[in-house]
Each structure stands twice: as C-alpha cells, then as structure tokens.
Amino acid sequence: AVSGSLVVLGLLLHSVGTFSGHWGLSGVGFPLALSGLVLWARGRDALGRFAIPMAFLVFLLPIPWMLQAKWALPAQRASAATAYMLLLPTNMSVMLQDIFVYTENFFVRVDDTCSGLQSACALVMLAMVAGHLRRVPFPRQLLLLLLVLPAGLLVNGARIAFLLVMGHYLGITWA
After folding, report:
1. pTM assigned to the model
2. Do residues 92 and 165 make contact, with C-beta atoms less than 8 angstroms apart?
C-alpha cells in the first residue's frame, strides 16, 4: 500500500511539474515514484540501500527559484560576515555593511551567485556519496552533512576575503 502510494504521488508530482513547467515538482516526483517502485519490487532493505543514490537525483535539479530567493540573502550575509571576520586580524581597515565588505581601496558586494548556495549543494552531494561509498553508519553520515555546511561557509568567506585582499593591494584587474 505504501509503495503504491509513493508511486502514484511521485508520478502525479512528476506529471504536474512537467506539464506546468515547475521542474522542482517534477524532480522531486521522479525519485518518489522510483522509491515506491523499489519498495514494491525489492522491499524495505533494498530501499535503504538505494536511498542515498535516489536522494542524489534531487541534486541534479537547479535550486528552485523560490528556495533560492528565500536562502540567497541569508547566505550572502553569512558569507560577507565570514569574509569580514577573517580580515579583522589583518592590518587592513575593513567595514561590513549588510552584503558589502569595504576596505580603504576596494569593496565587494556579495551577490546571490557568490552566496555559496551552489557550492553548498555540491558539498552536500559529495558528502552523501562519500558516506555511502565508504559505508559509513547513518549517524556519522548525518554528522558529516552537518559539518559540511559550516566548512563550506568558511571556505566561501575565505574566497571573498582573498578577493578583497587582491583588490585592496593589487586593484580591480587582479581581483
């Protein structure tokens, strides 16, 4: 009964998403329908073994625009604040104002393409695959996923800080 419901719900979402142009619905519906088929054909154990690869299918979609709009600004602010904090110990004079980080000679506006959302998706995907391939127990996989996002934020902030240092000392062409 559960497997049939998953198949029907998944196919319904996939169909509605495909015909309406809402690719997020379509992309979520397909793995749901596939999960129902695996559950029906091979049982709960097989579904557990294939859960990570099927969840991986969701990451093949671009982030839906409504989620991008909701998460972009907080991610931009976090990345700008991280870059600012990384530059505080230097001898550069820095100032943070929302999504702008200023030095005496240069500034960076952290826009939505620089927010780190795309790299966060890639890091989560990589962590899922690594945990699955190494057969890491689920609690440790979950811990890995939780650690990936702060690490990604730190690296994104370091990249922005590097651009600020380059722009401050060498000019916009180098940055």
Report:
1. 0.63
2. yes
